[in-house]
Design brief:
235 residues, alpha/beta, Rossmann fold, 4-stranded parallel beta sheet, 6 helices
Length: 235
């Protein structure tokens, strides 16, 4: 099961899992083009148990859970509204934690499972107007570690991947793609602050997720792997 499967990194992950022979069910606000999709609003956390029941009816069991759905609503910390803060944490943190909690028992019973959470470099680093997003991703990485500790003895590995800049719709704010602006080029590319000199493509992040979600991953758990083109290697 892949949340946020209709676009960007989530779509690339779902596509890669299908190519590897997995039966994949996407969960998103809209239909994904490449995989069967169950439409749901993850911000409606009170309905998540119903969603889990429907997923079990559809798939029978879930051996791989990828929490990729996410949202970002920029606001200055001094202007933070409860509605924005609450919704961001519901989608980015509460939903993934509850989904891990609900699908983990089945994985434990079967003695096998892989969970991968798509975090962000915002889990460790911050910038202005991103309080809600920063808090949600830091919490998701903490939850990743706790679940990994609790499930490790049952053959269930839990990890996270933290992308930097990725060429997805999340980079578009108020109709402007920040990755194509002159300020971005000056601040990150021309300055050398982003060593590889470009944002990642969704497939490049998905490739790492697919390894962590596969049976080839036998010894990585409780980790957050950074995929940022070297952005956080310097200061």
């Amino acid at each position: 099961m892949v949340t946020g499967a209709s676009r960007g990194i989530g779509a690339a992950i779902a596509e890669g899992l299908v190519a590897g022979g997995a039966e994949v069910l996407g969960v998103d606000l809209e239909e994904a083009s490449g995989v069967p999709t169950m439409t749901a609003d993850l911000a409606e956390t009170a309905s998540l148990d119903q969603l889990v029941a429907k997923v079990h009816d559809r798939l029978g069991s879930v051996d791989i859970l990828v929490n990729c759905a996410g949202m970002f609503r920029p606001q200055l910390a001094s202007d933070l509204t409860w509605e924005s803060y609450d919704q961001t944490l519901r989608v980015n943190l509460h939903a993934p934690v509850l989904l891990m909690s609900r699908f983990a028992p089945g994985m434990v019973t079967r003695g096998y499972g892989r969970i991968v959470n798509v975090s962000s470099i915002h889990g460790r680093f911050s910038e202005r107007t991103s309080t809600s997003y920063d808090v949600s991703k830091a919490g998701l990485e903490a939850a990743t570690r706790t679940f990994a500790l609790e499930l490790s003895g049952a053959g269930v590995l839990v990890n996270a991947v933290a992308p930097g800049f990725v060429a997805t719709e999340m980079s578009i704010v108020d109709g402007i793609n920040e990755l194509e602006t002159e300020p971005f080029t000056i601040a990150y590319v021309s300055s050398g602050r982003l060593p590889l000199g470009r944002p990642a493509e969704p497939a490049e992040v998905a490739h790492i997720v697919l390894h962590l979600a596969s049976s080839e991953n036998t010894y990585i758990t409780g980790q957050t792997l950074t995929v940022d083109g070297g952005l956080t290697a310097g200061f």
